[in-house]
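Lab manual, section 2.4: Encoding a predicted structure.

Procedure: take the sequence of the chain (309 residues), apply the prediction step described in section 2.3, and record the output as structure tokens. A sample record is shown.
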Amino acid sequence: MVVLLGLIPLCGPALAAHPNPSGSSAGHSLRANLAWQIALERVGFSPGVLDGTIGRKTESATREFQRVRGLPVTGRLDAGTAAALAVNPDSCTTTYTVLIPDVADVAPLPTDWIEKSRRTRLAFESLEALIAEKFHCTRGLLHRLNPGADFARLAAGDVVVVPAVGDTFTAPAADQLEINLAEKIVRVLNRERKLVALFHCSIAKDKEKRPSGEARVVSITQEPSYSFDPKMWPEVKNVDRKLMIPPGPRNPVGRCWIGLNLPGYGIHGSPAPEMIGKTGSHGCFRLTNWDALRLAKMIRPGAKVKFLS
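Recorded output:
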């Protein structure tokens, strides 16, 4: 097994009290922040892509969790919130060994749409991108957890320090979605209209393409293909016919499509997870791939979707 130079075994017992060799306050802050974000994600209140930095998304998810649990709504990690979330900085990281199937799921990503249509799968552009998505984090966080590591030279057998995200979330049944266009947040409600999950999304840049009122879920497809219509992409000049774009994590709608009864509209994954929360889609609602797959386990065709502005 090849171990990357410069990796910090943050999860080892000998370093449990020291997040980095110097035991610096910066390292402690990173672990504390990451543990907070992981704990939120574990209970279904997404802090956005894990980055170890507390910002608007983490604070809004914290406020929603506090509101549901009857805690003081501050958006901050006070003692009561930390206890309710079971935040544990000592177990917020683990190690991951790059596998041969990981290497097989990496291929150069074409930018030309015709070239994309000729592929059988739109795989990850790099092992770094694959690992970041597998562990729900930014590439920047991977570099902070693995100082000195050369991610361009990753290979099967290499060991990387990663967030300990796991998959312990038990998806509750959802009856309704509320998409707040101003906040760029999808709220998931159960039959009693109680908030059971929260996800951050991207919305259309063009306000005229943002839907209003209500809609319903009509279909849920994992690993979807994408029908590329050049009429919907006026910036693309070299395509004069519809193309079928193959599935994969870098498909334009990611790894999951939740279709609505509005022609052409859906809630779906994304080939660019670090862009979630910004405007810029062609009208649909983008989630990270992992959030889209999680939502697909909660929702069913027929569920109501309300758009709030």
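Check your result against the sample. Residues 25-42 form the longest helix (18 residues).
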